């Protein structure tokens, strides 16, 4: 298995509130590799990630997946190829771990089909991979920050995309959890050939 998709940005300009943060960036994402975006606070790391993930519309330039502009992909089709874990995602109230991980299967389900065997297997595998199976029936609110972060990553894994974008996946975690999450992502890349791009603020973690 592995990612055969070409994913790139050309002459990208992007930002917020009429303020341009990303200016004329060209970027080609290496296939089947882990890439890390690092830089000083406020230099535009998250803006770049959000722009290539179609969460922010560029003011100029193109983001293309397999030679086609990503804004031309229907959302569900794009979500079968490209997964994103934003920084500090909002937890829906009163949801269990298994239910949240299960939301990663949405791009693969049609309106009438309900859950398939493959959906259940993908959720089970993602929870097992992130070592959270024992929390399956717990409310997300009952978990520690590190455990919760593993649940979010499991949800992204259950989506089974070839490309995974992660914005500061280790923020607010103590160093043990930070290293553990990076090791799990490395294992994911080695096992499935998933192309992973992540924003990190710590240069030592990035080097690791």
How would the blueprint of this fold be written?
Blueprint: E1 7-16, E2 19-28, E3 34-37, H1 45-52, E4 60-65, E5 68-69, H2 75-79, E6 82-85, H3 97-102, H4 117-129, H5 145-158, E7 163-167, H6 175-192, E8 195-199, H7 203-207
Parallel strand pairs: 3-8, 6-7, 7-8
Antiparallel strand pairs: 1-2, 1-4, 4-5
Level-2 CATH architecture: 3-Layer(aba) Sandwich
Considering DSSP H and I runs of 4 or more, what fraction of the residues is helical? Answer: 25-40%
Strand order of the largest sheet: 2-1-4-5
Tally of strands: 8
Shape: globular
Q: How much is the radius of gyration in Å?
A: 17 Å
CATH level-4 homologous superfamily: P-loop containing nucleotide triphosphate hydrolases
CATH top level is: Alpha Beta
What is the number of independent domains?
A: 1
Which regions have little confidence, pLDDT < 50, spanning 5+ residues?
A: none
**Terminal CA distance:** 25 Å
> What name is given to the CATH topology?
Rossmann fold
Q: What is the helix tally?
A: 7
Write structural notes for this entry.
By secondary structure, this protein is α/β, with parallel strands linked by helices. The chain has a single domain (7-207), classed as Rossmann fold. 33% of the residues lie in helices and 22% in strands. It contains seven helices and eight strands, in the order E-E-E-H-E-E-H-E-H-H-H-E-H-E-H. The protein has a four-stranded antiparallel β-sheet, covered by helices on one side. Helix 4 (117-129) runs antiparallel to helix 5 (145-158). The longest helix is centred in the C-terminal third of the chain and has 18 residues, at 175-192. The protein is globular and about 45 Å long.
